[in-house]
Amino acid sequence: xxxxxxxxxxxxxxxxxxxxxxxxxxxxxxxxxxxxxxxxxxxxxxxxxxxxxxxxxxxxxxxxxxxxxxxxxxxxxxxxxxxxxxxxxxxxxxxxxxxxxxxxxxxxxxxxxxxxxxxxxxxxxxxxxxxxxxxxxxxxxxxxxxxxxxxxxxxxxxxxxxxxxxxxxxxxxxxxxxxxxxxxxxxxxxxxxxxxxxxxxxxxxxxxx
Amino acid sequence: xxxxxxxxxxxxxxxxxxxxxxxxxxxxxxxxxxxxxxxxxxxxxxxxxxxxxxxxxxxxxxxxxxxxxxxxxxxxxxxxxxxxxxxxxxxxxxxxxxxxxxxxxxxxxxxxxxxxxxxxxxxxxxxxxxxxxxxxxxxxxxxxxxxxxxxxxxxxxxxxxxxxxxxxxxxxxxxxxxxxxxxxxxxxxxxxxxxxxxxxxxxxxxxxxxxxxxxxxxxxxxxxxxxxxxxxxxxxxxxxxxxxxxxxxxxxxxxxxxxxxxxxxxxxxxxxxxxxxxxxxxxxxxxxxxxxxxxxxxxxxxxxxxxxxxxxxxxxxxxxxxxxxxxxxxxxxxxxxxxxxxxxxxxxxxxxxxxxxxxxxxxxxxxxxxxxxxxxxxxxxxxxxxxxxxxxxxxxxxxxxxxxxxxxxxxxxxxxxxxxxxxxxxxxxxxxxxxxxxxxxxxxxxxxxxxxxxxxxxxxxxxxxxxxxxxxxxxxxxxxxxxxxxxxxx
Lengths: 209, 490
Fold this sequence. Notes:
The structure holds two protein chains of two kinds.
Chain A: H1 3-35, H2 37-40, E1 49-55, E2 64-70, E3 83-92, E4 95-100, E5 111-113, E6 118-120, E7 127-129, E8 134-136, E9 148-151, E10 154-159, H3 168-173, H4 188-191
Antiparallel strand pairs in A: 1-10, 2-3, 3-4, 5-6, 6-7, 7-8, 9-10
Chain B: H1 2-15, H2 18-25, E1 28-30, H3 40-59, H4 69-78, H5 83-110, H6 119-142, H7 146-159, H8 166-174, H9 181-213, H10 230-241, E2 242-244, H11 245-248, H12 250-271, H13 296-304, H14 307-331, H15 343-365, H16 374-377, H17 390-401, H18 424-427, H19 430-439, H20 453-463, H21 481-489
């Protein structure tokens, strides 16, 4: 075996490795594109859209009710998981607040207690006031708020992504930083005014799809 | 017999595996390693094989679709013959596997087996532990019920806190914008293909290294590991005081493996399969999600960490712990192996065990969570109402109706988020009670906006009665007795 032959084989092997490297790189493009599809698809808030919750008349003034909506982005195997709940607070007239049920701490579903005017989380004990601001417990901020508008007498919210503490939609959801002054000191005098919003009735479950 | 031997020979002429297998089986091991302390590695392997078999059996019925998974689990539990048993074996096998892997790790650590030349065996072991935990978590997700759904939400909330790439990780993890069909599908792929594939590969490497480097000798206090001399010392030991692994040591492994399999089966028969709990329907918010047993400590930790420390602890903590475990054999790769001469090692293990045990125990009854139904379900004990005035009784009613009971216990029932109030009047004066109720503070919400003056007065009147008989309530020393009386009469 002469040296020339060996170097030729060696060269061919190197070319072969290079060729495989090129093919692998070319194949990596669609593979990575596929793996990242759930990320790239949601760029520029493409997952978000406006969904109706129901007519204004379904939400009594001064009360907070549970409403459900269907997530705008659906795949065939989603089943019940696309049905989403949210808390709708009608402050007065057409003034609303729509909160995500997901606790701002780690996402467990918070429950509304109209008697004490608090949202309480069953997981780690986070609590929020009726306006969504943080009352106590481990959350660092208030409840996530969906952007909303009243259109033709229907309460509509912009939804489509799971609100999580670090997501850009979370800061987009909370228009004002709800935790600012979360534990605001209420003057005793001010607090002694009877609250007209205190209602003994439990929030009735409403659902629209 | 001759025929069997000839068939065997036919295969071995082609496979040529008999000689290396015999060599591996009969390799000499130090005599005192034929110990009951050395059976956990093989037990972990046994349970892993059990998980492979039961997992494949479950996959015959299970449907990895968000709309069907829960129904297919119900079918396994109730319709398919012995489906419940296979589910229970897989679930209990998972718990046993995590437990045995942890025990194996502690034993290896205390016996100094991670030191030279077995550093890489230890590091691969660390990855095997992480993969085992990954299997446990993804397995919980495949049990697609309410706990799985909200558990994924918790996972997403933690992942979203990673700076800059957090949202990208969340979408990668969920396979879309929300927890839905794509999420279950990718956790199925992880649980059934990706992690088990890696586990099989790493287990093979782990075993290969145990064979190549030899099992760790029984540590003797004072016999120090030195890089220069260890290998020759070990070979001398196995030559002088060695015995073939098969059958000298293997019988204990076999007995223990059978015992563990029997224990898993016994738990499966006696306790049955895990769940599934309620349907994974996000509109059902009357749920108290809880992680599986081996993640309960994390659930407890997340309740006790101060909010400002949580994100750093969640993101930096695991990196530090894993880095420490990986670097351990490089930090103390030589020297003393025996736990009798390594007090800090023993104390570290004890401390970690106590911390994890305490957090797990606490997570069993979650004193940090409000009791959501205490206000409407728990009765006010008679002794607190006996001989009370109408105003005080009204206060007791306010106490219940305003959900104070969800966080504060009376007579040992009610929430434990806040302090028990059985003797609150001894600790706080009337003024302090009013201020605490109205302004909150110290992790209590302010109730000022949700109590009318009449309700506040009644509530405080009731709270002032909460002191042990014969013990006077707290009073403001700055006020004269007469003033105080007139104040309380108002």
